[in-house]
Amino acid sequence: xxxxxxxxxxxxxxxxxxxxxxxxxxxxxxxxxxxxxxxxxxxxxxxxxxxxxxxxxxxxxxxxxxxxxxxxxxxxxxxxxxxxxxxxxxxxxxxxxxxxxxxxxxxxxxxxxxxxxxxxxxxxxxxxxxxxxxxxxxxxxxxxxxxxxxxxxxxxxxxxxxxxxxxxxxxxxxxxxxxxxxxxxxxxxxxxxxxxxxxxxxxxxxxxxxxxxxxxxxxxxxxxxxxxxxxxx
Length: 233
Hints:
There is one protein chain. The termini are far apart. α2 (55-70) packs across α7 (211-230) and α4 (139-165) packs across α7. The chain is of the alpha/beta class. The strands form 2 sheets. It has a 6-stranded mixed beta sheet. Helices cover 45% and strands 18% of the residues. It has 2 domains: 1-30; 32-230, Aminopeptidase. α4 (139-165) links the parallel β6 (121-125) and β7.
């Protein structure tokens, strides 16, 4: 083989290897999913207040712990609508989704009412809009298909979150519920509102203010999100 031909062959192999080696390395890495976590309330809006518990503080604390837990996983990144005690409008929370757009949204709340004995957690998905009159053309139909897909994905996500929270609050689930939400309706991606316990229940309030419970809730939520992505088509 001529020296010039040999050099060209070696050079070609090196170029090919430069493309193939990173691709092989990337193939072994799990896909990194992004979730937007919205700690409800903030600033002048304290949300539910009971004894020393303020909803805005607890939702932020759990959101920050979720972000910390997600850092231990290679397949999940958690972004927050707020990482400090500040007020945000719904539009500002939607804008916080930023670019690249997250693959799902979890809005954290603390429940209240229904009497002082009410306890447990609730998971809300946005709900399926009733069919109405549509304008002609394919655009409305395509929008409906995309919306229904995100709603179906929201239900799957809700089921995983419910299952994960059951490990923290055994037999305390109050079921999956359907309700409209301004934040989730403004985003065409799967989303949930999670009501984490009742501030108006003394025993539950005391438990929720404990760091061990807060971390357990954050860990369970992260686990539920990861399980959802693992089962995604």
